[in-house]
Amino acid sequence: MSSRESILSSIKELNQQEKALPDLPKFDSAQDLVGTFEQSLQNNKGSIISELELTDLVNSGAYPKVYSGSKLIPDLKTFELPEKATDLNDLDLAIIDGQLGVSENAAIWLEDENLGLRAVPFITQHLVIVLEKSKIVGNMHDAYSLIGLHHSGFGVFIAGPSKTADIEQSLVIGAHGAKSLRVVLV
Amino acid sequence: MSHPSQAANFLKDEKRAHWHDETLWFVREKRDIASKNIPEWEELRRLASGIKDHVLTKLDYYLEELEKKASENGIKVHWAKDAEEHNEIVLSILKEKKCKAIVKSKSILTEECHLNPFLEKHGVEVVDTDLGERIVQFLKQPPSHIVLPAIHLKKGDISEIFHEKLQTEKGNEDPVYLTHAARKHLRDKFMAAKVAITGVNFAIPETGEFVVCTNEGNADMGVHLADVHIACMGIEKIIPRRADLGIFLRLLARSATGQSITNYNSHFRSPAPGKEIHLILVDNGRTKQLKREKFRNSLKCIRCGACMNTCPIYRRSGGYSYGSTVPGPIGSILSPGIDVKKYSTLPFASTLCGSCSDVCPVKINIHEQLYEWRQEITKAQGWSAKGMSMKMANGIFTSPLAYKISGKLLRASLKNLPKSVIYNPLNAWGKNRDLPEVPKESFKEWYLKNRS
């Protein structure tokens, strides 16, 4: 018997009485979705900047290699997406669009079509996500009901910059991924 | 080695043990604050528990569904009955890809299967990429906590090992400096690895996808740069619907560290063009645990670690005192299911205060199961010091004469015997505790003298 068969048959032979799958209720969330989102983002060590501040940031030259896949704001890229993700190692700043945000925890949903390459929001030194204010929902349940079963090979909720507290519980930003997360609300 | 003797080792460094206790309690308090911000917290726990209960009664159906949907998505699904088969599957993929170095993000399952030593024996370099895991890997130690792998170490220890392995400045203990040194070191590893291994937090049969949560982004750095992603999951990691993630992602990070969500929550549904995803479904004792009705619902665990942070024994004895891959209260009900002899002392490493059950996001009755395991273990051993003394007490209490004589004897001996006899190794309760002063006479004697 293959392992597949032996695992499945040892579960089947228990003849368990099925317990009902609970229905998922709707839960209330904050009234001020944008304000709560901004507060949650700050708690996660991310920050909000304006479109103008972003343009100034890119023009300042502090970030030589900028990739932008954003369709929500004018193109600011200085660098075309390479074929291989490993060629992104020196990417300084990535600007991408988020599909929706969650006010309770500042999680922003992104799919393949937003990323270009899946590695982009992780390998970049600094990350900017552009999000429409109207796409901010209350909680994770609202988020999943909007996302539905939409097919994307990869989807991710990003809620802040890369962080760790593995050394004596001291919070350090910039473990492996982006050292900062800035969100532009449009 | 038994839990009590390992715990005694941990407590030798009093200052460090105190720090460990306080730090984990701090994490527990953060969990309390985070959970109290959610008015429907208890409702979420009830739902999560109900969803997991449901899955366990239909696990065969959901595993087949997951396999079907994931395969349709282009994920290659493997089945492993035990750790050995799991390790062989991983190795065979690495051989096929001619891969000699891999990066791995946090996976308690691969710890349970002892994948690292197995791969190293076959000439594969394994790099754990979670910072805490990399630290303990440098020290050739296992993680001491499932969420905070290096919580038993102080920054001085880490500074020392980084100086040796990563040539950081001697004596520089700044966490920012040390973390950024690790970032640089691990980036080189990410850039070079052709295969990346991750664990799985949740797998969804409805969509054939699986979800991996990290704060560091190390799982994503690994898999998106490599050509092949191998994801290893215990068969109990299933939740039926994508919408169920709304419940579990709200509970997981709040229970684990008091954050509202982990910073990266990645949903893998199909490989990127030209790449591969392998998903290994591992039993390794889980179907056996499913058969044990009293202990079945330990399989609902989502590995948040909340029961460890709150446990008065875990906080004061450290993860290594348990000698099992998963330590703490949940480990003490899972491990005896794997090897009841080896882990026979773990269910006794508890005060049965029930705090673990109170914080568990999926409402596992951990402390009740600890009690049940004690019954099983005592029965299996057929002998216990407590059982013997209870029998003796039974004899004494049924005979008034025996009671009177034994009381006199006990008072006399406690007063006159040298301390070394009373506080002997058989009397665990005598450790760090003193008996109250022994009265000169029994109550009966006093009553006869004063009131008759």
TrEMBL record, chain A:
Domain annotation LUD: ranges: 45-186
Name of the protein in question: L-lactate dehydrogenase complex protein LldG
InterPro entries recorded: FTHF_cligase-like_sf, LUD_dom, NagB/RpiA_transferase-like
Pfam families in UniProt: LUD_dom
TrEMBL record, chain B:
The keyword Iron-sulfur is annotated on this UniProt entry: yes
Keywords assigned: 4Fe-4S, Electron transport, Iron, Iron-sulfur, Metal-binding, Repeat, Transport
Family matches, as PROSITE patterns: 4FE4S_FER_1, 4FE4S_FER_2
Ranges for domain 4Fe-4S ferredoxin-type: 291-312
GO MF annotation: an example: metal ion binding
Protein's UniProt keywords contain Transmembrane: no
Protein name: L-lactate dehydrogenase complex protein LldF
GO biological process, one term: lactate metabolic process
InterPro entries: 4Fe4S_Fe-S-bd, 4Fe4S_Fe_S_CS, FTHF_cligase-like_sf, Helical_ferredxn, LUD_dom, LutB/LldF, LutB_C, NagB/RpiA_transferase-like
